[in-house]
Specification:
The protein is built from 6 helices and no strands. The protein has 214 residues and is an all-alpha fold. Helix 1 packs antiparallel against helix 6 and helix 5 packs antiparallel against helix 6. The two termini are 21 Å apart.
Length: 214
């Protein structure tokens, strides 16, 4: 399960970065048309071709992230079962929170991190690094904040065919939107990397329990 998550997470990240590349191409196309550097037909082609692909890539990345989340919840449940079987250590959250911690409003802002932190503490106390779990969760939350902040701040002109009528701040808004997409992809990448490391570490520690028991 840990390996499956790593593969899916990497796929999601790669797709996001492909979308980021198209986002910057899209911004540059708008800026070039605004400055009169390219023709209207070239702009319309880029708008009608690249933008749908960019949106599709983000949707594909979120689908991959959904699959990765399902795998993580199953893995967390199994890891918790292993921890309860091989140790008498106490956890701050009960086993059902392996799933519900992600979906219950408000507590979903920190319960998954608490659940993983307890597993890490119980499974690999000698290798434990609370900074890793904290880094994973902080980058994960900031990635979503950055992603949605970019959408909220985006202001597109009503008529794309007369893009020269855009104001400077509207072009600058597209620049900020593109930068927010880059930042969110970077944060998602960091979050995925931290969680992969944590899962591998916990998985190896629990595998040692099984080897010792056999």
């Amino acid at each position: 399960m840990g390996s499956a998550f790593a593969v899916i997470a990497v796929i999601a990240v790669v797709i996001q970065w492909a979308a980021v590349v198209l986002r910057w191409i899209g911004y540059r196309t708008v800026a070039a048309r605004y400055e009169g550097e390219i023709s209207s037909s070239d702009y319309k082609w880029a708008r009608d071709t690249l933008f749908p692909i960019e949106v599709g890539l983000w949707l594909m990345s979120f689908l991959a992230m959904l699959v990765a989340w399902i795998i993580v919840t199953v893995w967390l449940s199994r890891a918790r079962t292993n921890a309860d079987t091989f140790t008498d250590a106490t956890h701050r959250l009960s086993p059902p929170w392996a799933f519900w911690g992600w979906v219950v409003p408000v507590v979903s802002l920190w319960f998954p991190a608490v659940f993983v932190d307890d597993l890490d503490k119980v499974s690999a106390p000698r290798r434990r690094s609370r900074g890793l779990i904290a880094s994973w969760w902080i980058t994960w939350v900031l990635a979503w904040i950055t992603f949605w902040a970019g959408i909220v701040s985006l202001r597109m002109p009503d008529d794309h065919d007369t893009i020269q009528t855009m104001r400077d701040h509207e072009v600058d808004g597209l620049l900020i939107f593109s930068a927010s997409r880059s930042a969110s992809a970077l944060l998602f990448t960091a979050a995925a990397g931290c969680l992969i490391v944590a899962i591998v570490r916990i998985g190896r520690a629990q595998a040692a329990w099984s080897d010792a028991a056999s």
